[in-house]
Amino acid sequence: MQQKQLSEKDKMLAGKAYQAGDSELANERLKAREIVFEFNNLAPKQIKARKQLIKKLFGKTGTMFYVEPPFRCDYGYNIEIDEHFYSNFNLTILDCAKVKIGKHAFFGPNVALYTAGHPLHSHLRDQEHEWAQPITIGHSVWLGGNVVVNPGVTIGNNVVIGSGSVVTKDIPDNVFAAGNPCKVIREITDADKDFYYKNFTLEQ
User: Is residue 92 part of a domain?
Assistant: First the structure.
């Protein structure tokens, strides 16, 4: 029995090499750009309308979230956000593969999540081959301004990534990590909580 030939979209979602110039994928990117254009050009007070556009665009959302415009993505349907998500200005998500973001995620300005990659050898790259690997971000994660997360990376729960970091490898739970390439600096402990109670007069 002859196997069904995979479409370029099937290949993309399966993590195989694919060609993004395919008409189906091009039309889906155009559809996403139309929604993103409308989202980015709404008046600042039209919060509910922007929220409805994000729910239409993303594959999954919680009920409590806020995406500060401007925002950019490739397809939208590969993006899943959980409750209490917030992103500051200029979030870019190249969602050629799945992007899953946990509860209480907080993104600074100019954060970029890149699932897309290209061959190192120019022979294949010149033929417009691409590939994509998923990104997973856990609960209670703060990505500082200008953080870049590369394809295939998983960031654990209760993690802070310092501003300007380029995350090329997985980051475990309960750590502060920073740098280019991003590396674990230290564990996050209750001493960090006590620091804020002491220095910012917060009530316990």
Answer: yes
Query: Is the peptide bond between 70 and the residue preceding it cis, with omega within 30 degrees of 0?
Result: yes
Task: Band the pLDDT of 4: cuts 50, 70, 90.
Answer: confident
Would residue 43 count as lying in a domain? yes
Domain containing 50 — which CATH number?
Answer: 2.160.10.10
Contact yes or no for 92/70 (Cβ under 8 A):
no
The pTM of the full predicted model, rounded to 2 decimals, is 0.94
113-153 pLDDT tens trace: 999 999 999 998 999 899 999 999 999 999 999 999 999 99
What are the distances in angstroms from CA 191 to CA 129, 187, 194, 195? 48, 10, 5, 6
Decide if 84 is catalytic.
no
According to DSSP, the residues that pair with 23 across neighbouring strands are none
Q: Rg of the chain over CA atoms, in angstroms?
A: 19
Q: Which of 104, 118, 129, 139 is catalytic?
A: 118
